[in-house]
Amino acid sequence: MSHALKNLPSGFCLWLTVLTIAQVSTTAQAEPSNFPRSDFPVPNGVILALLETNKTIYIGGTFTQIGGKSRQYLAAVDSISGKVTDWNPHPSWYVQTLLAYGDTIFVGGRFGSVGGAQRSNLAAIDARTGQVTSWTTSIEPGTIGGYIASVNV
User: Fold this and answer.
1) How is 60-112 classified by DSSP, letter by letter?
2) How far apart are the first and last CA of the chain?
3) 99 pairs with which residues across the strands?
4) How are beta strands 47-53 and 56-61 bridged, if at all?
5) Are 66 and 49 spatial neighbours (Cβ–Cβ below 8 Å)?
6) What is the pLDDT along the chain (153 residues), one digit of tens a residue?
7) Which contacts (CB < 8 Å, 24+ apart) does range 50-59 have?
8) Which of 4, 16, 48, 96 is 20 to 30 Å apart from 24, CA to CA?
């Protein structure tokens, strides 16, 4: 099931693919040897989404630590140094998909808040600061009955 969202910049349409729990498929855990860097930080859970933009690799998944640092479900790694950055939005549950648009990282998954701000399964996060933006969707908690599986422009 796909949904178009309102309240986006002129000419911008964000499409969401929503899966219900019955449609969830298993995802194999990414092994460090699958990444181009041998020193890529290892998470303590599954990586479900990777996005590289502006020399930063954004990582979403089911982890609570990566590279020995506490990062709940969402982290950023400097693609040059391989170090986990200070960027730490802190969603309340797992992240399934990531999309960059300008200086914003759209994050989809199954969560109720990001950084203490109520966001039902979809949030817009400042790529530089890790702070949740004021952008919200018209999706009310509980109306989808699943989670955000992918976002596309």
Assistant:
1) EES-SEETTEE-SSEEEEETTT--B-S----BSS-EEEEEEETTEEEEEES-S
2) 16
3) 106
4) antiparallel
5) no
6) 334 444 444 444 444 444 333 232 333 344 444 445 677 899 999 999 999 999 999 999 999 999 999 999 999 999 989 999 999 999 999 999 999 999 999 999 999 999 999 998 999 999 999 999 999 876 655 555 566 777 766
7) 50/98, 51/98, 51/99, 51/100, 51/105, 52/79, 53/100, 53/127, 54/127, 55/79, 55/80, 56/85, 56/87, 56/127, 58/98, 58/100, 58/105
8) 4
Question: In this structure, are residues 120 and 141 in contact, taking their beta carbons and an 8 Å threshold?
Answer: yes
The three-class DSSP label of residue 61 is strand
DSSP state of 7: S
Instruction: Compute CA 5 distance to the chain's CA centroid, rounded to the nearest angstrom.
Output: 18
Per the confidence metrics, is the pTM higher than 0.85? Answer: no
